[in-house]
Amino acid sequence: MRKFRFPVLVFFLIVFVLSNIALSAPKILIGFSMDTLKEERWQKDRDFFVEEATKLGAKVLVQAANGDDALQVSQAENLLSQGVDILVVVPHNAEACAAIVESAHKSKVSVIAYDRLIKNSDVDLYISFDNEKVGTLQANYITKLVPTGTYVYIGGAPTDNNAYMFKAGAMKVVDPLVKAGKIKLAYDQFTNDWKPEIAQSNMENALTLLDNKVDAVIAANDGTAGGVIQALTEQKLAGKVPVSGQDAELAACQRIVEGTQTMTVYKPIRVIAEAAARAAVDMAKKKKIKTTMTVNNGKIDVPFLALEPIAVDKDNMYKVIIKDGFHKLEDVYRNLPKKDWPAQK
């Protein structure tokens, strides 16, 4: 028996050494530069992204600038100084974040634009949903409900390239109806920093200008929709004027089942977060990323991994939002009598 003891000990020693080498191997370090964490949606993006990256053996350093352009650039520089292997950026300002791309490339670090495109830069990859389709889904839904009448468009932040893409998609539907004389687009305004209170002020201006004669509102996201609905509530018009949205925020989903908001566009956040985490790890390993199309950012045609958004209303709320685990049934329907809750299947 003694003659087998030595090889067995050697075998376990080799396994121990190799295991420790694997454990001590440096992890991929991902820098995640975010515009803001003040909104529920972005907190979910962060959590899902970090969860997936961790599963893949990476470590994530997160910084959030909360709408401050100079701070976001400074935070990105800090992430680069910490030796990140890849930088993922949710830009507050599509133009200002070009400086981040330039700095990263000087450090030989690739950059992924997450959800929002970085303009006039050599950004390496763009991952988002088909943002023009988001606008098209909003406009298609509202125009089918209200095929004629006076419309208001409340857009997103003028510093966010997505706001222009949402509007471009919506106008593909609205413009032909305007030209045909079926719709009058009587008020059209962007919303600085996507702030609901600015959207509310814009909607109040529209109602004053139009003497409350508004038949439908296309609002670019759920935050702006919330501001719009507050303005409508003050004029006792909430629930009477259809309002679109986007992001499937909990408050918006509650408004939809309660009848004050008409629809939202769901962009499955886990899908984009996990796709971005996988791409970040692969790019850090110098692997090629398969993309579906390109989008021009004013300087180059950026490889674009485009994901599919989903229109959601009260009829498919349970099937899409609840069954996907994005929100809980009791949270979305909590302000309704239980007899009005959907049957769980």
Shape type: globular
Biggest sheet, in brief? 7 strands, mixed
Strand order of the largest sheet: 2-1-3-4-5-11-10
Separation of termini? 62 Å
Q: What is the assigned CATH homologous superfamily of the largest domain?
A: Response regulator
The CATH class assignment of the largest domain is Alpha Beta
Please outline the helices and strands.
Layout: H1 2-24, E1 28-34, H2 40-55, E2 58-64, H3 69-81, E3 86-89, H4 98-106, E4 110-114, E5 125-129, H5 131-145, E6 149-154, H6 161-179, E7 183-189, H7 196-209, E8 216-219, H8 222-234, H9 250-258, E9 264-266, H10 269-284, E10 293-296, E11 301-307, E12 310-312, H11 317-322, H12 329-332
Parallel strand pairs: 1-2, 1-3, 3-4, 4-5, 5-11, 6-7, 6-8
Antiparallel strand pairs: 9-12, 10-11
Summarize the model shown.
With 345 residues, the chain is of the alpha/beta class. It has helices at residues 2-24, 40-55, 69-81, 98-106, 131-145, 161-179, 196-209, 222-234, 250-258, 269-284, 317-322, 329-332; strands at residues 28-34, 58-64, 86-89, 110-114, 125-129, 149-154, 183-189, 216-219, 264-266, 293-296, 301-307, 310-312.
Description:
The protein is globular, with a radius of gyration of 24 Å. Helix 4 links the parallel strand 3 (86-89) and strand 4. Helix 2 (40-55) crosses helix 10 (269-284) and helix 7 (196-209) packs across helix 8 (222-234). The protein has a seven-stranded mixed sheet with strand order 2-1-3-4-5-11-10, sandwiched between helices. The protein folds into two domains: 24-123 and 268-307, Response regulator (Rossmann fold, 3-Layer(aba) Sandwich), CATH 3.40.50.2300; 131-266, 3-Layer(aba) Sandwich (Rossmann fold), CATH 3.40.50.2300. It is built from twelve helices and twelve strands. The mean pLDDT is 93. The chain has 345 residues and is an alpha/beta fold. It has helices at residues 2-24, 40-55, 69-81, 98-106, 131-145, 161-179, 196-209, 222-234, 250-258, 269-284, 317-322, 329-332; strands spanning 28-34, 58-64, 86-89, 110-114, 125-129, 149-154, 183-189, 216-219, 264-266, 293-296, 301-307, 310-312. The longest helix has 23 residues, at 2-24. 46% of the residues lie in helices and 18% in strands.
